[in-house]
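Database export, one record per block. Field names are fixed; values are copied verbatim from the stored entry.
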Amino acid sequence: MAHFHVFADVHDTAEHIKIRHVDIQDIIDALRMGVDDFMEKPSHYVFLCVIYPIVGFILFRWAFGQNYLQLIYPLVTGFALIGPFAALGFYEISRRRELKMDTSWKHALTVWKTPALPAIAVVGGMLIVLFLAWLFVAQMLYVGIYSATPPEALGPFLADVLTSQNGWALIIVGNAVGFLFALAALVTSVISLPLLLDQDVGAYVAVKTSVMACLMNPVPMLAWGAIVAGGLVLGSLPLLLGLAVVLPILAHATWHVYRKVIDTSGH
């Protein structure tokens, strides 16, 4: 596996990567730069017309078809766990714009030609496993609080969740557990995937660097996580359509968070 640079870098060594200390202002600057990238290349059209409706249709059709109405909310919120992996194309657009290179959408697809692809696939697979684990835990919470019998209709189920003691228990406990999954995804991927796109350091080094960056900058990184969570909530309100704008902005901004946190001057 080392031949494919999955665990180590191209030289099969755990390259030392310098992590900077950042503050809240750096996070705000990264968000502003993400908005600038979005306005320069309004990638929301692609997300709006192709990506998110397809994924949303598949998830909702599966939930309704399999009578898993109780998993619609976990599916929608859990999709954000694999968002960093799905955002690779946006990272590439921001990287190319930073280098004053062509930023047409064809280059967003060239990320699959990167030599770090095997390592990126490992990190992406980890996020997918995290997403599936969240769905399993969400189902177990529903069974524990309600029963193994799925709800018969969405309307009555929503009414019960919002007005009953069991419903509020599901909301509180479910969101608390969901926060832990979201935190795990943030800590392991916020730096690792942009880093792998920028440098072929291997999955282990990338994830370790991401974790260390979060430990060295707990308040700014938690603030970034809160911005991501708040943006996803706001974007989900108008029938998920707002995510067509929110997700690209957050993806572009994540690249700039990486640039703020990781010192690439010696690269």
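Remark 1: Residues 117-145 form the longest helix (29 residues).
Remark 2: Strands lie at 18-19, 262-263.
End of record.
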